[in-house]
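Reminder: ligand-aware prediction takes two inputs, not one.
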Amino acid sequence: MSAPDESVVHGSKAPDKAAPKDLPALDKLLRDCAPLVAQHGHTLVANEARALLDGLRSRAVASTLVRAEIDALPQMLAGRVDARMQPNLRAVLNLTGTVIHTNLGRALLADAALQQVLALMGSPNNLEFDLDRGARGDRDDLIEGLLCELTGAEAATVVNNNAAAVLLGIAALARGREAIVSRGELVEIGGAFRMPDVMSAAGATLVEVGTTNRTHPRDYEQAITPRTGLIVKVHTSNYQVQGFTAAVDEATLAPIAHAAGLPLMTDLGSGALVDLSQWGLPAEPLPQAMLAAGCDVVTFSGDKLLGGPQAGLIVGSKAAVGRIRKYPMKRALRLSKLPFAALEATLRLYLRPERLAQDLPTLRLLTRPQSQIAQLALHLLSDVAAAVAPRFTVETVALQSQIGSGSLPVERLPSAGLAICAADGRGRTLEALASTLRSLPRPVIGRIHDDRLLLDLRGLEEPALLTSQLPVLKERLA
Ligand SMILES: *Cc1c(COP(=O)(O)O)cnc(C)c1O
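Here is what comes back for the chain with pyridoxal-5'-phosphate:
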């Protein structure tokens, strides 16, 4: 009954405008939302209610609040509380064409790994408890045998990621001494992981040998001094030097290192554990081949081609891996129980190599035949076209996927998908569409290339995850 007076005071002619005093007090709103408080507790609901009322009060003062909004307060509050409980880390659809995408969480975990995480993480477990002896154990003991069996190594350990494995390996084997690396391998893997910086962080002095394109055995031999602690090889995973090149492979370098009493460490990065050429994929160097060539330490990632969780795997000789395990920094870099459970379950899948292309989702995506992906594109074409019409047109296209995460940088996998063009031909319109796709409940991530938004369907195993969102897309584009 006071609203008309307010309207008169503020000179407003709209009878449905609300004034600040029309807003309920915090306590009243919380009483009206008792079930919500019962479900979530007082703190969260009261915090959100306060913020909600503050916002509405400012709008009431500015005379932009209508009464209907006050009636909707309980629903608005429930919506806010619900939104606050939604994690920022969300599932997305990776239609970028890069299968192992570092920005999109890299490898997808196998069912066996997911189930193991689910089964173990809510329960006490024997992470560092020896069930036979009933005494304190070492988490490495749970996984070392399996890693040795799969790679042919004498010893193995695991840490938080491959960057940590490289850092720890260099620190344990060459702290306060010199480590020799070819100039052609002083790579930046991404972010702040640059070989020279890792060397100094590990307390080793970097000795560069050779040139960017060519390094010879004698370059290494001449660089070895009494101060040398280690020779390091780095797999140049995210670029390739082509043309007039020469590098010294591990089989040539190992005798040179060993003749001087030095260990040889190689950072493989991507870490395929089986020969990928059996599925028509480009071959990657395998840890087992590096060990057979004489490397004392081989490091690789858990969440690239291996298809597991983030982890750094270290395999090698008893002596070198023993020094790494005993190095104090190991404790700070150790693998947590959550990825540990997933890693062990993933590695066990390698005991059944014939099933790998079905069991490992990342390998399953990489080995999807183009014909199957093209069929999916054709199947989705009319529904997607209807959802984005009339501002956009859609056609099916042949595409080139890539493996990603630095693996095999120049190789491409024939793929297929949808290309969306703006009917007005404007790039800005396409950016707006990409943004709308990212705003969907399960964000859809494509890529814009040559004035087309490309959706590479290699990454879409469940088409319903896309089609079920098309009505929302249509509505948001309208
Ligand atoms: C990816 C990569 C790394 C870093 O591995 P993370 O598991 O991401 O820490 C290091 N070296 C090489 C050669 C790589 O390809």
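Residues 161-163, 166, 189, 193, 234-235, 237, 267, 269-270, 301, 312, 406 surround pyridoxal-5'-phosphate (CB under 6 Å). The first helix runs from residue 3 to 10. We will return to this case in the review session.
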